[in-house]
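Supplementary material to the annual report.
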Amino acid sequence: MASISLKNICKVYPNGFEAVKDFNLEIKDKEFIIFVGPSGCGKSTTLRMVAGLEDISSGDLLIDGDRMNDVEPKDRDIAMVFQNYALYPHMTVYDNMAFGLKLRKRPKEEIDQKVREAASILGLEAMLERKPKALSGGQRQRVAMGRAIVRNPKVFLMDEPLSNLDAKLRVQMRIEISKLHERLGATIIYVTHDQTEAMTLGTRIVVMKDGIVQQIDTPHNLYMSPGNVFVAGFIGSPQMNFMDAKIEANGDKVTAIVGDTKLAVPVSKAKSLISGGYSGKTVLMGIRPEDIHDSQMFIDTSPNTVFDAQIRVYELLGAEVFLYFDYAGVQLTARVDPRTTARMGDKVRFAFDMEKAHFFDKDTEKTIVN
Amino acid sequence: MNTMEEQKNHLLEELTRRTGLFIVLPKEQDVDEAQIVNILERFLEPYRKSLDLSEFWLSFLRGNLSAEETSKSINRFHLKEATTAVVFLLCFSQGVSAEAETVLGDLFGEGSWILHPDENHLILLRLLRNVVSTEKLREEAKTLVDTLSAEIMVPVSVSFDECVERLSELPDSFKKVEFAENCGRRFSPGSQVHAYHDLGLGKLIGKLTKEDCREYLEDHLGGFRFDAMDQELSITIHIFFEEGLSIARTSRRLYVHRNTLVYRLDKFEKLSGLDLRRFDDAVTARLAMLMETYLEGAVD
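Predicted assembly:
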């Protein structure tokens, strides 16, 4: 198995476009690292540089301490799984999985052993003689995984492998990939634009935007302590609510004024706002949908964070309800208990859980305090 | 030494390649394999003096055949003018490997030809039952890239044009595919799939002569060159264009104060004489940037 170091990796194309800027990351053996970000953020380019399919413009790539920049892709001991995989239509599952090893002219016995091992890991033993036509979408995806597993590589690189599957199958395959990571004990780098996939699969997540790493952290820390507005908005669904808040300090007591409402800021957050010199300034306040409450009990215990709003949209998702409403000139979303009595058109009283509020600098968009 | 049966199979494959005919021989116990091999050899002899089907396709796509030669070959290979087809051009920057041909051969069976025009390219010609949408073709092109990348781990790009519905349209379509590869490589170097219909401004620039481009650059920029700008200014200009000339969005994306961005745009104006905040100047600069990129890769 393998550790991977990316040191000051940059990718500049001949037309001057900088696709990846100063990317630094230490990946430990057996880690499941996710590169996540919107389309064009440089995540696939970085993965392709690790694979050797794209030249590294500057910086160093090390696998197990060995510099890999000039090593041929096939000699890097990695295997890739992509979104648009094709199975050989005239070959059986067995032959599809064996194909890569046959191309590498591995002995028959070794091929047979590795194909059967991979089939057992993936639960494909009973399907080895079937042709791709006779497989479901999930089974085909498993065969594509199998083609990578038989190579027994140090590192697996996966580029949006589930993007072509329907929503239900994606959830199933997500669980399978997670189990696979446990069983193989392999180092995996996984690229996705889907933050739910990133949060559920990764041991650590690299959030990227415009070729720049925004934050590298565990799923929990990214959610609870985002480093800037972009990460705060990208991680979490529905996304975090943002609104302008004017900060007023009176001694060590701080109030955030949002619209007409004066919200008491907890002492722990107040300190950072005062020491950062934000008193009298407008900052960006972020609050997650689950931290806006409509329950009477919460409202009674948080009298300094209460406001009223009219519900524009009511969405029942079964285990939870999303309420959409306008407040202080922005549209907010609250995630509340399905037993709520609030319905579309109702005027409802809410309270922010200010202990969970996040404050960001409006100019730099960096976090002041989480 | 091949067995008689292997020789027979080899000749049957050659027969299909050279004539377009596909022959299935009955499996009988007491067939004289040697006699069949002999008949096949004699049958193939005249055909060996002319193009085989793969050679025909390659010459045809490149527009190297006269109308008479084309017509004769179409008859000889039992092809029909009313044929739906699509051409994919695969570019292997590190050279075509035998493995790449094996992978493609196994992915696409009957009705597809893999042609080897030079050491860096393969052509995948597919005869189709129906017209396939550009979106589907794009997916197929991505699948080619992903499958080759996963199986043999080589950098590859794929260019394509829309389907044609008449065989005689194929040479023009192939020219468009070659053009898409040439422009795509220059103007979208990070992309592995280049569709002729997606080339945008690159399609216009790519059709100009090098002289036209040089003249335009001289007229509008004098001695200024984009590639002589420092990296910071170069990135700023690129992102300013990507963000639709919006000061607010560009400064946010670059994490710089708007005054810093305005200072950089002023600096660019001093160097080039073009104020990118003015629409006309922005268009002039955008075209000039593309022309400069085009000229960098052009061979005199």
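Chain A has a mean pLDDT of 93.
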